[in-house]
Specification:
Two copies of one chain form a homodimer. Chain A is about 40% helix and about 20% strand. Chains A and B meet through helix 7, strand 8, helix 8, helix 9 and strand 14 of A and helix 7, strand 8, helix 8, helix 9 and strand 14 of B.
């Protein structure tokens, strides 16, 4: 995406061909800071501490983490050890293990001397594929927004509701759900985005608002609890969210607070879509309730980080000293609440059959055909 | 309620028989501060700025606001002018206009020299009635908690989910939904309360958590968006919330974010109750969607107030500079999502007939019988 003068990705290879640069998303929207990752441990820490976040970007960072390990020590166990470290950094998103395993696969048959180059190449390929996937998801998603515009007789702007951050900051480039918004805006479809703040970490208020402001797309931030009211009063034409992992049956694990949006959308007959790059699909899990839900540090809930009057970024505690806090990072929206899954191959019905129709090579029948 | 050494109400007449004391709830949970109100304008400002909040406490404060006006200037128009000022302070809650009108009614036929005394007496009566209503609501609500305990074979504690603050801070004494929790705890029913933080103003994280900690009731704070996940995984046995205004048909206007809780409770077949003191019932409104929804200062969403590392209470901005924000303070839960309305006369079905059965004197049929 363009930020100021330059085209910016959320992750890129540094000019020395070794280090990996990522935007430190903990600094946004009040500051802009870039980190250099030099080891697999750096990559794992950036993922765990959420300097990088968003399932596709976590995957890309994990891929480069294996490459960094292969560069430092190409001997037999080093990339595999790094892979385990990286995969443990965050448990819910599907892309991380997928990307790490891909790089491991790319180096496993390669002599140690060529492993680093093979790993870097595979990580770069994953990034290129991510950008292409997101471009396609944006196009399919924009069709849905265009259809709402037509339905409104082109008389008013389309109102889109989204949650968390699914823009270019969550991916290598362009984004998933927000890619549809960007694509629609480029097609000059008038639209406005309702942005839920997304407690506890405020990725909506902080990151999505920042991205949309940069892109010149009009938006309004609301608290998470207000989305039900908005939908009840028909303030949104459609909901588009992302996913961290989607089951083979179409259940969508995504940022905590997504499931209530889907319930409210259904109650008001507003379509609810998830943008689902295929690397986020877990073909081995049929029932989304089996997806592991990460529990994070209670401090994320107990305090809120923002810009203090002093001009410094500070965390302020919102609970009484010693209060017990729980912090599930994701929830699961059952497939029957999902109007469609926007994949790079088109919009799938949120069912096993719907996904299998678009990805026959991954469905049990398709897989056995190949056997 | 007992806080430390003393029994504490949220509002009380000062020893000079003139000023009215209220706890300044903006200071909690990080500090404890008491305000003295001496004029109707003081009372209106305390309501508008949310030094006092909670529909019953707003009602009591409004009642004393009229009394303060009658004391300052008992001439014909003064109490009525004050009444309009007070009623305009917040539009959604039903108790404010009800209480103000009651005090106006009590002074209207009284000669100016006795108006102040009559107004103070009526305000005190409203406070006494509020305490009695809440005591009764607590008893009826505790029966529902006791029933869940029996259903669990008394083998584990009852898990209660609540939203915002409905405790003694929201009323004159005891609370509404939290009165049920306090009553159940006094009956030694083991229980645990899930407290949604309640953005934007954090009445759950700040006030409910503070009250429960004071009372020794175990609790856990979660973000608003996490309640759906909790209910989906059957982490709560029942939901009890308060109300700012309930329609004659049983639709419940309450703090923003209540409606998604009701949707999630229904989806997981968890009972959802609203604690409804009869002064919160608007007998003139059949359809809850006609209840006016207050829109408050966007700054409440754009920034979060809490305790900074410096030990000072500060607000930190969570959106980018200039971001557009919307801030609806309430939403409406349709009656068909409500398992029951816990009134001071018992648990009513959330229907016109259900409310009319408990309040026959207010139903159209009952009213015409009296005519």
């Amino acid at each position: 995406m363009r930020t100021g003068e330059r085209d910016q990705r959320a992750i890129w290879l540094d000019e020395d061909g070794w280090g990996v640069r990522v935007i430190d998303q903990r600094a946004l929207p009040h500051g802009f800071r870039v980190l250099r990752l030099e080891t697999a441990a750096d990559a794992a820490s950036a993922i765990r501490e959420m300097a990088v976040r968003g399932a596709p970007l976590i995957g890309a960072t994990g891929a480069y983490g294996v490459a960094l390990a292969a560069r430092a020590e190409p001997a037999d166990r080093a990339p595999a050890d790094a892979a385990n470290l990286l995969k443990d950094a965050r448990p819910t998103g599907a892309n991380l293990a997928w990307a790490v395993d891909r790089v491991i696969g790319a180096v496993s048959e390669v002599p140690p001397a060529r492993r680093a180059a093979a790993a870097y190449s595979e990580a770069a390929r994953i990034c290129q594929e991510d950008a292409a996937i997101n471009r396609a998801i944006g196009e399919h998603g924009a069709e849905l927004i265009a259809a709402e515009w037509e339905r409104a007789g082109r008389r008013r702007r389309v109102e889109v509701l989204t949650h968390c951050n699914t823009g270019w900051l969550a991916t290598v480039e362009r984004g998933t759900a927000l890619a549809a918004v960007y694509e629609a805006a480029e097609r000059e479809i008038p639209l406005h985005v309702w942005v839920t703040e997304t407690r506890p970490r405020e990725q909506g208020a902080g990151l999505t608002a920042w991205e949309l402001a940069q892109a010149g797309v009009p938006f309004t931030v609301i608290v998470d609890g207000a989305a039900g009211h908005l939908l009840q009063r028909r303030g949104a034409d459609l909901v588009i969210v992302g996913t961290d992992r989607t089951s083979a049956g179409g259940d969508v694990a995504n940022k905590i607070g997504t499931y209530p949006l889907a319930l409210a959308a259904r109650a008001s007959e507003v379509p609810f879509y998830a943008a689902v790059p295929s690397p986020s699909i877990d073909w081995a899990i049929a029932d989304g309730l089996a997806i592991p839900i990460e529990e994070r540090d209670p401090a994320e809930v107990a305090a809120v980080t923002g810009l203090a009057p002093s001009g410094r970024v500070e965390s302020v505690r919102v609970v009484p000293q010693g209060a017990r806090v729980a912090n599930w990072a994701f929830d699961v929206t059952p497939a029957d609440l999902v109007s469609g899954l926007i994949t790079e191959r088109g919009v799938a019905q949120a069912t096993s059959a719907g996904l299998a129709a678009l990805f026959p090579e991954r469905s049990p029948a398709g897989a056995s055909n190949q056997a």
